[in-house]
């Protein structure tokens, strides 16, 4: 399976020592995953965040810290939109 190195910004850097290696790696950029495959990969690569993140995800703590509007908060750190309902 061809390897693709990732730069610090998450941009793939495609390289190879032979022209056929480069062609094979460039062909892999056309691979598209369905939503179920992406979900399974996200679950498999999930990293436990630990304290304080796990603590702050407890529903009672979230409500105490963020008040009645906690369900309206959108996580903008991601490339896709995720609400508090998706996380909790």
Description of the molecule:
With 88 residues, this protein is mainly alpha-helical. It has 5 helices and 4 strands, in the order E-E-H-H-H-H-E-E-H. The strands form 2 sheets. A two-stranded antiparallel sheet has the order 1-2. A two-stranded antiparallel sheet has the order 3-4. Strand 1 and strand 2 (12-13) form a beta hairpin. The radius of gyration is 19 Å and the shape is elongated. The chain starts with a strand and ends with a helix.
Short note summarizing the structure:
The chain is mostly helical and 88 residues long. The chain has helices at residues 19-27, 35-44, 53-56, 59-66, 84-87; strands spanning 5-6, 12-13, 74-75, 82-83.
| Tally of individual helices | 5
Low-confidence parts lasting 5 or more residues at pLDDT below 50? 1-8
The assigned structural class equals mainly alpha
Termini Cα gap: 36 Å
Rg over alpha carbons: 19 Å
β content, as a range?
5-15%
């Amino acid at each position: 399976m061809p390897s693709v190195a990732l730069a610090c910004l998450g941009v793939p850097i495609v390289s190879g020592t032979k022209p056929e290696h480069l062609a094979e790696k460039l062909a892999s950029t056309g691979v598209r995953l369905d939503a179920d495959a992406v979900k399974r990969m996200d679950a498999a690569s999930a990293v436990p965040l630990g304290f304080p993140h796990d603590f702050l995800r407890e529903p009672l703590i979230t409500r105490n810290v963020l008040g009645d509007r906690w369900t309206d908060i959108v996580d903008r750190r991601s490339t896709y939109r995720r609400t508090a309902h998706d996380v909790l």
